[in-house]
């Protein structure tokens, strides 16, 4: 199917007409939408999904050992994160909330990324080198910035799109609606990617918005919203690709459709909201197990095996590479030495008298007691 036809087939449909290419058992259910991807690309997608799951497990383990700060798990959402990012150009701007580690993995996750989760803001700086906005913690606060960036790209004539990830809970924040409205009015090349994992911390999807779908919210702002099976990496790829192409396409005669698109990726968060959360207090484990039957890695692996792209030997090689890479990432991050004085470096462009006083007080404490005593929690 040609590009324009794919865009119409994918984007011009009812917001509750969920797009799926792979069934839960890994079989193709929409052959007309199956992307024509090279075997090496497909294996790379699988590697990144598998890496993301293992990264998740390792980070949670480190947090439990006191070697990492509070961490947000991505397990169950690998399909949407990797599939959508592979649909982008390398220099498209990526903006994410805090759970989309897989999107960063697809951009060759830098070792400094771990520093952020270890409490060092410097870990955010490395993301700029791979065209990723700094990680955002405030819910939905990054959406207006992503729209502003894409508007600037449009005004500058840059052929780059802005893809912004956020959770379903963010759609109840004012920043979401302001960003959507601005994107629609100013026709910005923005792809809004909502990772609907069914829970806004402990608030179920149906209890935080009365809309039948999140995708339909786009209609209020004059552009298209589409729903996709977020646990299907091929469907996530196809939809994100179509939305990106639409965002950057030159206007055809008489075609005045706005460029933005809202994608609702329906999926499930297997783990806790963060390592400071206990999901057993608000959800049934049987529900989690039902969603695990649609696991994005399992269904993609089955698809690749059926195509002859993947076998046991290749998976064994991939796993060995993943473990070696993770070991190197953790070793480098844990060997980095922090300078307490960095706390004061970027608070203000020009330090205030109070900030200077605080810096002097810290230095006096270090001189009087030594760093070892100050770091002794016992």
Q: What's the gist of this structure?
A:
Keywords: Oxidoreductase, Pyruvate. This protein has 15 helices and seven strands.
What portion of residues belong to β-strands? Answer: 5-15%
Q: For the terminal residues, how far apart are their CA atoms?
A: 65 Å
Radius of gyration: 22 Å
- Neighbour order of strands in the largest sheet: 1-2-3-7-6
Architecture blueprint of SSEs:
Elements: H1 3-11, H2 39-64, H3 78-86, E1 93-95, H4 101-105, H5 113-117, H6 122-125, H7 143-156, E2 162-167, H8 174-186, E3 190-196, E4 199-200, E5 203-204, H9 205-208, E6 224-229, H10 233-248, E7 261-266, H11 285-292, H12 296-306, H13 312-335, H14 353-369, H15 371-374
Parallel strand pairs: 1-2, 2-3, 3-7, 6-7
Antiparallel strand pairs: 4-5
Helix pairs in contact: 1-10, 2-3, 2-12, 2-13, 3-10, 7-8
3D structure, described in words:
The protein contains 15 helices and 7 strands. It is an alpha/beta fold. The mean pLDDT is 93. The chain has helices at residues 3-11, 39-64, 78-86, 101-105, 113-117, 122-125, 143-156, 174-186, 205-208, 233-248, 285-292, 296-306, 312-335, 353-369, 371-374, and strands at 93-95, 162-167, 190-196, 199-200, 203-204, 224-229, 261-266. The longest helix is centred in the first third of the chain and has 26 residues, at 39-64. A 5-stranded parallel sheet has the order 1-2-3-7-6, with helices on both faces. A two-stranded antiparallel sheet has the order 4-5.
Which characteristics define this entry?
378 residues; two-stranded antiparallel ribbon; five-stranded parallel sheet; 15 helices; alpha/beta; 45% helix; single chain; 8% strand; 7 strands
